[in-house]
Design brief:
The protein is an all-alpha fold and 53 residues long. Helices cover 57% and strands 0% of the residues. Helix 1 packs across helix 2.
Length: 53
């Protein structure tokens, strides 16, 4: 299987965004409604100095 066949256009940015999402999910855990996760993701983006557009 050739895993190098598909490449991300913005590999580093994609990696950072997924990392933020996992950090937000793992910190409070599962079971909250959507808004707290959204707010936490905005905070995490700010901590990592990522512009959320």
């Amino acid at each position: 299987m050739d895993t190098g066949k598909h490449r991300f256009l913005y590999k580093e940015e994609t990696h950072q965004n997924i990392g933020c999402a996992f950090e937000v999910l793992n910190t409070p855990g599962h079971g909250l409604i959507e808004k707290p996760y959204e707010n936490a993701l905005v905070v995490e983006f700010g901590l990592r100095k990522i512009l959320a557009l």
